[in-house]
Amino acid sequence: MATANILIIDDENDIRKLLSRIIRLEGYTVFEAETGEKGKKLLRSEKIHVVICDVKLPDANGVEMVPQLKEIQPLCEVILLTAFGTIEDGVSAIKGGAFDYITKGDDNNRIIPLVNRAKEKALLQWRVHELEHQVSERYSFEHLIGDSKPMTFAVTMAKKVAKRDTTVLLTGETGTGKEVFAQAIHYESQRSTKPFVPVNCSAISKELLESEMFGHKTGSFTGATKDKRGLFEEANHGTIFLDEIGEMDLALQAKLLRVLETGTFLKVGETKETKVDVRVIAATNRDLEKESEAGNFRLDLFYRLSVFNIKLPSLKERQKDIPLLADYFIDMHAVKMNVKPPLMTEDFKNALLHNRWKGNIRELKNVIERAVILAEEGLLTTDCLPFDFLYDKHGEGQINSFLLTDVERIHIKKVMAYTKGNKTKTADLMGIGVTTLYRKIEEYGL
Questions:
Q1: Are 380 and 345 in contact (CB under 8 A)?
Q2: Which helix (H) or strand (E) element contains residue 291?
Q3: Helix ranges (DSSP H) in 139-190
């Protein structure tokens, strides 16, 4: 049985001591107070799961105290005791937030079962509260890594809009962390305890997306065998994140615009409107204004979505943050693999800094995961990087140079990576002598 703390507030010493002894025998920790003020003082200093409070106290009325006790510790449950119970007082107690209301003497056999039930409810509420706190911490702005100017500016903008119930449009290249930003905005908002519902508009066919977003009635189309709640209903009072909004079909865009303007929509096959209270955060890697000019996106929807536009910087624009992100992903993957986090060599770090990162943070995360798997002797070297990591699709190096010496240096490094540092094999593959290879390695500082 999970332990819990019980507070008994009763000015009758004999009854208070008797209850305390009975409840302690059940394995509970018990606190005692003979007045309402002393009870409230204990409630402020101790984590209490269940309060057993007398209705008639020297300084307070137990029924009137229930909201005060719940204000101090909202997650505790309150059981009221009285010598003379009335239906009117019982109704008032329950309406005020009491768990239950029992009469002294007549209901002695009910005390322990009632405390057990109240405790279970309180413990569940505390567990939910702790989980919500953990989720909130996990997705807070403090977990957005980076102190470069572009990143700092984006975070500052997101923090400013988080507390405002405003539609937000997140733009930027693929893999820049738009969903992570959307989560941070949600969990810093007044809707943080309500659902956060992500929808990838490009991952669902346009025929099914309307039903997924808004729901449908039985028989509205082939396969609709029962009523279905849409994602907007699931997100009611919370936030819906519409990723890849630029992929949405024009007909569905009109329906989305109506939701944004009126908070209402029609389910597929329904004639009665459904009303919701949902904050919308949208994201895209497209230029929606240009898409509007080309007739691919509604201009009025673009203006409605871009009330507050935040452009997320690419990894190329925030190069200063690459080592910080790399350290974070190294630790994360090391924990998952149950290994000690390997250390980055300077060559490895320089390779990360000079990569083009077309896939941005998502690409970096995947590269680091692969590198941690391949790490030997606790070190991340360039051998842990993908074979073509330093080269683009055309086999060109990641440096902006036309010098033959630079091309040769890159080629030697590429072949050495392929042979895992075997200089004899490297020289053989390149068609040069080992002595020549050693001279070039020294010359290029490889």
A1: yes
A2: helix 288-293
A3: 149-162, 178-187
Q: Where is 70: in which H helix or E strand? A: helix 62-72
- Cα–Cα distance between 389 and 83 in angstroms, integer? 80
Domains defined along the chain, listed by start: 5-135 (3.40.50.2300), 141-313 (3.40.50.300), 315-385 (1.10.8.60), 387-446 (1.10.10.60)
Rounded distance between C-alpha atoms, residue 153 and residue 158, angstroms? 9
| The Cα angle at residue 142 between residues 140 and 147, in degrees rounded to 5 | 140
Most confident of 131-140, 307-316, 343-352: 307-316
Q: What is the number of alpha carbons within 13 Å of residue 446 lying toward its C-beta? A: 22
pTM of the predicted protein model: 0.62
Quote the pLDDT of residue 388: 62
pLDDT tier, 35 (very low <50, low <70, confident <90, very high otherwise): very high
Sign of CA dihedral 27, 31, 35, 41: negative
First to last CA, the chain: 64
C-alpha closest to that of 191 among 218, 223, 161 = 161
What are the b/e assignments for 152-167, b being 16+ CB within 10 Å? eebbebbeebbeeeeb
Query: What are the phi and psi torsion angles at 342 (to 5°)?
Result: -70, 160
Q: Which of 34, 42, 30, 40 is nearest to 13 (CA)?
A: 34
Amino acid at 52: I
> Hey, which residues does 351 pair with through a beta bridge?
none
Q: Are 95 and 49 in contact (CB under 8 A)?
A: no
CA separation for the pair 266, 261 (Å, rounded): 14
- Those residues whose C-beta lies under 8 Å from the C-beta of residue 106, and which sit 6 or more positions away, are none
pLDDT value at residue 86 = 60
User: Two tokens at 278?
Assistant: 């949902």
Beta carbons of 102 and 85 less than 8 angstroms apart: yes
Query: In 183-215, which positions are buried (b, 16+ CB within 10 angstroms) versus exposed (e)?
Result: bbbbbbbebbebebbbbebeebeeeebbbbbbb
Answer yes or no: are the C-beta atoms of 43 and 21 closer than 8 Å: no
How crowded is residue 390: how many other Cβ atoms within 10 Å of its Cβ? 20
Q: What value, to the nearest 5°, has the Cα angle with vertex 310 and ends 178 and 152?
A: 85
Q: Are strands 215-216 and 228-229 parallel, antiparallel or unpaired?
A: antiparallel
Q: Quick check: 162 and 184 in contact, CB under 8 A?
A: yes
Contact 390, 420 (CB under 8 A): no
